[in-house]
Amino acid sequence: GKVKGHCCVFCTSDREISRNCGSLILLTSFISGTTFCTDFGMSDEANEPDASPSAGLGEAGEAAGEAGGARREGYILAVDVGTSTLRCHVYDKLANVKGSSSKKVHLLHPQPGWVEMDPEVLWTDFVDVVNEAIRAAGLSASQIDGMGISTQRNTFTMWDRETGELYGNFITWQDLRCSKLVKEWNNSLSMKAVNGGGGFLYFMSRSKRFLAANILKFRSQHVTMKLLWMLQNNLTLRRRAYNGLVSFGTVETYLLWKLTGGQVYATDYSCASATGIFDPYILEWNKLFTNLLSIPLSVFPPVVDTSKIHGLCEQKLFGAPIPIAAVVADQQAAMFGECCFDPGDVKCTMGTGTFMDINVGSSPHTSLKGLYPLIGWKIGEEITFLAEGNASDSGTAIDWARSIGLFEDYTETADIAESVEDSDGVYFVPAFTGLQAPVNDNSACSLFLGLSSTTTKAHMLRALLESLVFRNKQLYETMLNETKIPITYIRADGGVSNNDFVMQLTADLLNRPISRPKHVDMSSLGAAFLAGLAVGIWKDKEEFRRLKDGHSNHVKIGVWKSKEELKDLQSAEKVFQPRPASEGIWEKYRPIVEEWERAVKRSLYWYPAQRE
Fold first, then answer.
1. What angle do CA 393, 375, 168 make, to 5 degrees?
2. What DSSP character marks residue 166?
3. What does the pLDDT average to over 571-591?
4. Does 368 or 602 have the greater pLDDT score?
5. Which residue has the higher pLDDT, 465 or 113?
6. What whole-number distance in Å separates Cα of residue 92 and Cα of residue 8?
């Protein structure tokens, strides 16, 4: 049958619509309080349930699909919750930024070594930057096809499932309150048994999963020990958690929960894999750890695909129910934004810290030198794994140098470094939070060595910038030697990548071209790409890996159609080529790198009691 009436809030004319469309309009109105046009110009047959472009997505998918009918221009909104900055960009079909907004992330330091964020402040700022970016783009929320969210990893809080009451601030990935627990557990008989048992099982089976258990160590930047600390230091939380009444959430989980009014509680594979308590080999929360540490498995959220319609934002937040089409961890988002889709593709993000990731294909890499196995993203049946090495103090070291007066303007740092021929025998070790792979010493300290009466600020700044390059070299060589995967290309992003001195010297010492893209906010762009794919249709060979959630859950909005199309959108602002051997760059730096490695040895084991 047919029904007549005004079919949406954007229309004033009477139209004929099918009974199916009328039902969906009522459902959409019920969910969101807003009725959207469903007149796609399709036949009644195309509107049958089994042919619906949002089939398999449930109510949220239906509402998203209906909303998509009124959206023609393909705008994607992406929010990146970083360590120091909260950014929101609105992108068009060609990945051009149409509007932006940002706020500084407010970090709290209630005690030495503790680093927290107030969840309510973060939530308020999140809503503000989204609304401001939409206004800056000259759009309304009803014109946004989907939202992608990229977040810092291993930052979490917990809340009561019945009351919604938070059990404290976010504990960030930089927080060191669990250092004592990390040391105690890594030296415990229980961990020796886990390592020994893993070694035996690896010898018998040659399974990489058991090799990982053989070399496993807890790390202070992961969630595991901080979560245990919370349970040990809050009796109410512990009691409620053991009764199944507490929810654990990293930043994206908390935001999903808040954006949907408590309707969606989930995380994605990329974020879960970074916590240290998720097993990437079997794609489950690690029952060995939860049993060993007496952490109730019930506190953890379901783990879902990275790129899919997760739910709808409450209409009261932005004026329309924007579909949440992707949630992803920041480094994995940057990897996707750099279009590192194939094994051997390398991404180097140099922000607060440096994170170097290599695409290792469809199975996780087990490292003996401290590279961490991560899930890059999961889209339907496709799952991509990464190996990651990091140096935690890159941008941190530059910020510190500015705070002590080595320079005033960040844009001048490259020129200042190049104003002197070398560092005059000065060496710097960037280890404010220890040294990660391949050194792996949380108790290492930062230091300057070789200061003399002739040392200037320029020498010290050059030594500091060189040290960041030397850490890049360490990570790259570890990656190359361990994975045995031929490197296809290297792309760099992050604030520190804007420094031409660091980029050129990195290209020289790695002897590889390094591409710096026009878009420097790669985490935001990656989240936008993933969200765009979730609301698009695959058209080429990637059709074999079409988006699935147990059903054909394509939303017919059509923003970006495939990863091949995303590669076309990706363009380099500058490619740094290694300088020719005739210029003797490596001959000059070989002894400097060797002396710097001696300086690194001097920095080791400085804080055994506090940070080991």
1. 60
2. B
3. 91
4. 602
5. 465
6. 24
| 3-state DSSP assignment of residue 546 | coil
Summarize pLDDT for 319-367 with one digit per residue, the tens.
999 999 999 999 999 999 888 889 999 999 998 889 999 999 999 988 8
The better pLDDT of the pair 447, 608 is held by: 447
Which residues is 151 bridged to in the sheet?
Answer: 81, 329
Measure Cα distances from 244 to 125, 233, 240, 248, 328 in Å: 31, 18, 6, 11, 26
Query: Between helices 119-136 and 251-259, what is the axis angle to 10°?
Result: 70
Q: Look up tokens 């040294």; give the residue.
A: 435
Please name the helix (run of DSSP H) or strand (run of DSSP E) that holds residue 76, with its range, or none.
strand 75-81
Type of residue numbered 84 = S
pLDDT at 210: 74
Question: Do 35 and 56 form a contact (C-beta atoms < 8 A)?
Answer: no
Q: How many residues does the chain have?
A: 612
pLDDT tens-digit series, residues 280-327: 999 999 998 899 999 999 999 999 999 999 999 999 999 999 999 999
Predicted confidence at residue 565, as pLDDT, reads 61
Alpha carbons within 13 angstroms on the beta-carbon side of residue 166 total 16
DSSP string, 218-274: --TTSHHHHHHHHHHH-HHHHHHHHTT-EEEEEHHHHHHHHHTTT----EEHHHHHT
Other C-beta atoms lying within 10 Å of the C-beta of residue 181: 18
Q: Which residues, in sequence order, are bridge partners of residue 117?
A: 170
Q: Tokens 């103090």 identify what position?
A: 393
Cβ distance 297 to 243 under 8 Å?
no
Q: How far apart are CA 456 and CA 355, in angstroms?
A: 30
In this predicted structure, the answer to whether residue 538 has a pLDDT above a threshold of 60 is no
CB 331 within 8 A of CB 355: yes
Would you call the peptide bond into 49 cis, given omega within 30 degrees of 0 as the criterion?
no
Phi, psi of 40 (to 5 degrees): -90, 0
Beta bridge pairs of residue 159:
166, 247
Per-state percent for the chain, helix, strand, coil, to nearest 5: 40, 20, 35
Q: What is the pTM of this model?
A: 0.81
Which residues 6+ apart lie within 8 Å of 30 measured at CB? none
pLDDT over 90 at 441, yes or no: no
Can you spell out the DSSP letters for 123-151?
HHHHHHHHHHHHHHTT--GGGEEEEEEEE
Q: Is residue 311 a contact partner of residue 263, using CB atoms and an 8 Å limit? A: yes
Of the candidates 355, 463, 409, 367, which has an alpha carbon nearest to the alpha carbon of residue 83?
A: 355
The reported pLDDT for the residue numbered 190 is 86
DSSP reduced 3-state for 29? helix
Q: Strand ranges (DSSP E) for 292-408?
A: 303-304, 307-312, 323-329, 345-350, 354-361, 372-379, 382-391
pLDDT of residue 19: 34
